[in-house]
Every structure is written in structure tokens, then in C-alpha cells.
Amino acid sequence: MTVFILCFLASAMFTLCLVRLGRSKWAQAADHDFSGPQKFHVVVVPRVGGVGIALSVLIGAIYADWTLGHGSLPLGLILMVCAIPAFGAGLLEDLTKIVSARWRLLATTVSALIACWLLDTQLRYTGIPGLDWLVTIPIFSLTITVFAVAGIANSVNIIDGFNGLASMCVVIMLAALGYVGFQVGDILVATLALAGIGAVLGFFIWNFPAGLIFLGDGGAYFLGFYVAEIAILLLVRNPTVSPLFPLLVCIYPVFETLFSIYRRRLLRQVSPSMPDGIHLHSLIYRRVLSWAVGNRSAKALTRRNSMTSPYLWALCMLSVVPAVLWWDNTAVMAMFLLLFGLTYVVLYWRIVRFKSPRWLRFSRSSRM
Known about the structure:
- By secondary structure, this protein is mainly α.
- The protein has 15 helices and two strands.
- It has one domain.
- The termini are far apart.
């Protein structure tokens, strides 16, 4: 618990400094673009929240290695070194707006390759027929691992669209990884998860609901990489954990990404990297919260923005809860993966056709 408090306090302090700096002198750190399809703010907001999170996780990683390493490799510190390309590319995009999605994905791939080399974090069992045979071949094991890590990092960036959305989902996912880490006696991995939770919550209090600072690409890619590597470390170090456990924990952002690729490439015939405004979280904002029309004041728009996130937190919890309850049962994990996919598709289909379930909608009387 000490590492959680340490990282929380450090992150809250760093983030507050970034809020003040970003709004006063550091113009490059702020988001001035209000016109994009995924832009839902109307005031200039600093988008370098990932800096405070990364610094705080670094403090937590050093603390974890110092107190729990017992003379072994400084796993936490090495993990932070591996994260540098992913975080650096995202932060560079936050500051310059010139780093394409392709280059950011490539940088995340480099981070994953370095982690495979330095930490030996390669998937050697997946619980998926066919893939289990492939991962027995080193080159395929490396390829699948790198693809998984880069994919999760990118998926966290995809869902970073509203105040508190991506950050709280990361907290939920890290909490699940940390809980199972404690269950199997892997205190080091569990402590690294706690460090991440504390650092993200220190950012969260300034991001939600007021939206005083954004996670930014640097923060999103860093957190996605961190979650993916903690998950793989848990599997590699603890064979009793189901190989589908991390996938079920992360299935909301992963499925959102896969569905977006399908929707853009096959249905709309555009590049998968082309941004649009019809992600599930965007549809909930525009159609489930259908009363949010007309008023474009900063206060009203920020309130609507923040009201969207809890819907997706609940969706994330739908997969995380069964993952935590049956973390060592691959068959149950597979069943809930299928159930989540079905639930997501049905929910998306209804909302996109203006047939949102009544229990999702706010009535006018409930807002008065």
C-alpha cells in the first residue's frame, strides 16, 4: 500500500504542476484543436498528463525493486526503460502534432521488442487452438507477443476520448492484474500494478470530471504498454494463471480497436488509422445522452463529456469481474470473451440505429 500512496501523491503533485504550466507558459503542451471528429472540449487544455504518470510510475518501480527485488534484476526499472520509445513517440506527438499513428505504433513495437529481449516476456501459451502450436516456434512467439503488446497500447489510445474514460479503465485493469498477482504470490508484479494504479489516480483527480488536463498520446501509449507488459509478466512468471485472463481483462479496448478496424476498412473502405466520431463512446455521448444538444458552453460540454465515461467503465467491468473470479479457468474465460463480443455488437447496433435501450437513457425529468 505504501507504493500506492507514494505514486498517488507524486502523480497528483506532478499533474497539478503540469496543469498550471500548460495553461500559462507551455503552449505546445496544450490542445488547441476543437474541430476534430473526436474533440469534445471547447477550452485550451494541456495534453501531457502522461508525463506526471510516467514519472510517478518510475518512482514506484524504483521503490518496488528496492524493497522487493532481493538482489534480482531491477525488473521495474528495466520495464520503464523499455517503455521509453512508446512514451517518447506519443509525447512527441502531443508536443508537435507531427508524429503519425504509424510511427507511434512502430515505436510501441520497438518497446515491445526491447521488453522481450531484456525481460524475456514472450507468450509461450495462449489457450487458443492453433496459436499454441505457433508460439512454440520462437519467431512466431516473438511476433505474437509484440503484436499483442502494441495492439493493447494502441487500443488504450483509441478509447481515450472522454474525461476519465481511458484512465479509469486502466485502473480497473491494473486492479485485476494486481489482485491475481497477490493471489499467486507474485508480490513484485502486484506492487508494480499498485504503482500504476496510484499514478493514474493521481492524474484522474485533475482529469475527471473537470477535464483540467488530458492523458495525451504519451500517457495513453505508456499506460497501454505498461498494462500489457504487467499482464505478460504475470503469465510468464505464474503458469497457473489462465493465458486468456489478460485478454478478458483488456477486452473492452481491444474489441473496440478490432471493431473499429472492421468498421473502417470493410464497411467504410477507408484507412483503419483514419479518425472518426462513431466509436461506441462517441455514440453514447451523442445518442444515449441525447439531451446534450444545443448548448456549447464550456461548463455544459464538460459535464456531458464526463457523464459519458461511467457507461464505458461499467462495460469494462463486465469483463473484468468474471476474469478476476475465474482467473485460472481458461474455458470460462473463453465463454465470457464470446459473451462480451456479442454484448458489444448488439449494444453498438442498437445505439447506431437510434434504438438505445431505455435503461441507458436519461429522461428529461431525471436531469431536473
